[in-house]
Amino acid sequence: MSLQKDRRRSRTGYRKRRWRGQEPGFSFEPAFRISIPAPDGKPLNLDKEMFALLAEQFGLEAADFEREFIAGGERFRITDIDPRRPKYPISVERIPDRRGFKFTADNVAMLLKAQAKP
User: Fold this and answer.
1) Strand partners of residue 44
2) Which of 67, 44, 70 lies closest to 55, judged by CA?
3) What is the pTM for the complete model shown?
4) d(C-alpha 71, C-alpha 35), whole Å
5) 97 or 27: which leads in pLDDT
């Protein structure tokens, strides 16, 4: 932007207009979930089925889906495995605020084993 435009805008009180209620960095992303009924009538959880297929490749068990663990004094729940992220394939959510995080498979396996010991 040129110096003249800066001076003109500062004299006239020009400000960028923002949509009401939106702060910089605010975004909205709609998400839709479709439930497919299984033959017995129960809803089929595709996330759980995908986790069961991929869990052994990452050193976890199919039963670890939605299992909770503690890391750094905070509680987390396992929600997904994404094989396209080789360094941090395990998706988890922090339980109090449901914020998503990514963990390494080795770290999650170690934390689950440490928590299982009495």
Assistant:
1) 36
2) 67
3) 0.64
4) 32
5) 97
8 A C-beta contact, residue 70 and residue 115: yes
Write the CA distances from 44 to 36, 38, 41, 49, 104, integer angstroms. 5, 5, 9, 8, 27
d(CA 55, CA 22): 40
Residue reference for tokens 């988890």:
92
pLDDT tens string 84-116 = 998 999 999 999 999 999 999 999 999 999 887
What is the residue type of 9? Answer: R
Residue 91 DSSP SS3: strand
CB atoms near residue 102 (< 10 Å): 13
What is the C-alpha to C-alpha distance for residues 48 and 33, in angstroms, rounded to an integer?
Answer: 14
Identify residue 11 by its one-letter amino acid code: R
Q: Which two tokens stand for residue 22?
A: 């939106």
Token digits for 50?
A: 């995908």
- What backbone phi and psi angles, to 5 degrees, belong to 98? 60, 25
